[in-house]
Amino acid sequence: MNWLDYDTDNCSVQRSLDVIGDRWSVLILREVFNGIRRFDQIKEHTGASDSVLAHRLHKLVDEEVLYAADYTEPGARRRKEYRLTDAGLDLQPVLLSLRAWGDAHRAGPEGPSLEVRHDDCGARVDLELHCEAGHRIDDRRGVHTAPGPGARRAGR
């Protein structure tokens, strides 16, 4: 396949980045995956401004990555907390991949700041690339892109 022969207007990577392709959206997702779901807590932990955080949360809700659920603290007004939809949960391997890359290439000399562990057994969680036939792919140069059912030739 010659990549330049194909139109990229319907590329899934591009469409994904349209939803989560900025720093703040990814950091918001990191927080929600780690149980931080309330606006003030997300703001404090990420350092996002009110306007940036409100805009990104609104977009993630509109794109059905998160949904807003009401909650009320005793004596306080009703507020929203943000929870992952199924589409949001499907982003877990993406965030784990970013974390793994950061652990391998950006961690300080003392090592990674976090470990991800399996709730059932406590073992560390690792990501693995494999094909649908079940072969583990250790040589990342051993994969290629092929046209899918939605591929369109450039210029058409």
Topology:
Blueprint: H1 12-20, H2 23-33, H3 39-46, H4 50-62, E1 66-72, E2 78-84, H5 86-89, H6 92-105
Antiparallel strand pairs: 1-2
Question: Roughly what percent helix?
Answer: 25-40%
Strand order of the largest sheet: 1-2
Query: Could you name the ranges where pLDDT drops below 50 across 5 or more consecutive residues?
Result: none
Tally of strands: 2
Dominant shape:
globular
Helical stretch count?
6
Structural class: mainly alpha
Radius of gyration: 19 Å
Major β-sheet annotation:
2 strands, antiparallel
Q: Average pLDDT value?
A: 94
How far apart, in Å, are the first and last alpha carbons?
17 Å
- Strand/helix succession: HHHHEEHH
Which assembly state applies to the chains in this document? single chain
Q: How large is the share of residues in beta strands?
A: 5-15%
Brief overview, please?
This protein is mostly helical and 156 residues long. The protein has helices at residues 12-20, 23-33, 39-46, 50-62, 86-89, 92-105, and strands at 66-72, 78-84.
What would you say this structure looks like, in words?
The protein is mainly alpha-helical. It has 6 helices and 2 strands; from the N terminus they run H-H-H-H-E-E-H-H. The radius of gyration is 19 Å and the shape is globular. The mean pLDDT is 94.
Main attributes?
two-stranded antiparallel ribbon; mainly alpha; 9% strand; 38% helix; 156 residues
